[in-house]
């Protein structure tokens, strides 16, 4: 193999390009509108009931609508209800801690609450990354926990807090499910169209010459099948289109249709991540350590809102980014916060009444959803005043501005230090372990496929698990390419061999006639590749 043919990892992203990326609202207006309406509606009702500025705390439950986006309506209501219930429980638990601590808590009590915030951050990050839930991630749970323990220290009753959060969650459910009235198949149609487009582009571009291109197709296809399973729509015209596209990718020509299995269960995904060097475990460890250190330093320094230091840590580390993207997010967080407290200062000086404040918060929620996917700094510009307006002690404005900037800078600084110094070479182990998991899953498919038909229930489980591990391995390897390019360049040929063998095992299953095991010759060749 010549130097030109040697597989090479992707290059590190250009910092300037990521940092200064222009925000784009394409495809975000509908979910952004739902985010704003789910906040404004319950807050307006609570305000009319005489709860004053406390009605703004309905936002804590309204965030649940964000977790139902892109989900089919058959399960969207369950997702929103679950997220809403967890947000309400978070508000109740940390609201109770704040009420018990009171406004003049001792340093030891403040440190204990900070430890609780850090533990909650670690658990939520682990679950989010292990289940591959994606945005909005753990941030809103950390925000609700921090705000809850602050507002109950300063007079808001825990019962009222739960009422406000419950009202927001109820509105989130109604608003999130409303589109089912005019587009009942919207989510599954969108996911399938994206996967089919990716598959057709792959085939048309002769991407078989570039095995790395299979990863993007695999991710979009797995997502589409998962959405179709969630919608109980794996035997209709939409599923047939996706199945046909997948046949072309694998060069198969089966006459009968058998849908792949859905994503692994929650328990199975958590078990996949239950090792110390998994992507989820590393992200959770770093988030918890950063939150504890940054929050504790904020408490000992006498800053008024140590939860802001915790939020800074969670925002940088919650999705387990590589060091480059994590560092960029940290810089964006500080820039966005500085601009955001300026916007908050303007709103504070305007001394708005409850009605206009509700409108402002709803607009901020819309703007966050429009910008968070493409430019994080701009999104933080809107996140900051939203979080500050939701509630807190009535300290002088200059003190609020100073402390919010200091606390955020502290959280980001600790997060970046942890990102680069804690477990500095763990990405090597994470990548190797992920590749080993691919080999084990591939071996299981070939071993069981010697006797079991490729479309049997057990074989479909093994094939699904191999696909899941392949995507995990590619994510880990891509992170390594950003974290340590020299090591990634040395290791990449090995990762490429593992990845190609895994995808070829899946392709062999697709090309095997239904009702039959994998051919002995094909199994022998693939087993030899995996053994090497």
Low-confidence stretches: none
**Major sheet description:** none
Q: Can you tell me the number of structural domains?
A: 2
Q: Over the alpha carbons, how many angstroms does the gyration radius reach?
A: 25 Å
Beta-strand fraction estimate:
under 5%
Chain-averaged pLDDT: 90
Keywords: Membrane, Transmembrane, Transmembrane helix
Subcellular location: Membrane
Transmembrane segments: 39-67, 79-99, 111-131, 138-156, 162-182, 278-300, 357-384, 404-423
Domain Integral membrane bound transporter: 294-418
Short description:
With 532 residues, the protein is an all-alpha fold. It has 22 helices and no strands.
Q: What features would you describe in this structure?
A:
The chain is mainly alpha-helical. It starts with 14 loop residues before the first helix and ends with a helix. The model has no long low-confidence stretch (mean pLDDT 90). It has two domains: 25-182 and 270-421, no CATH class; 425-532, no CATH class. Helices cover 72% and strands 0% of the residues. It is found in: Membrane. It is a multi-pass membrane protein.
Topology:
Elements: H1 15-19, H2 29-48, H3 59-62, H4 64-67, H5 73-101, H6 107-130, H7 139-151, H8 158-177, H9 186-204, H10 214-230, H11 237-250, H12 266-272, H13 279-300, H14 306-317, H15 323-350, H16 354-371, H17 376-389, H18 397-421, H19 426-448, H20 457-483, H21 485-511, H22 520-531
Helix pairs in contact: 2-8, 2-16, 5-6, 5-7, 5-8, 6-7, 6-13, 6-14, 7-14, 9-10, 9-11, 10-11, 10-20, 13-14, 13-18, 14-15, 14-18, 15-17, 15-18, 16-17, 19-20, 19-21, 19-22, 20-21, 21-22
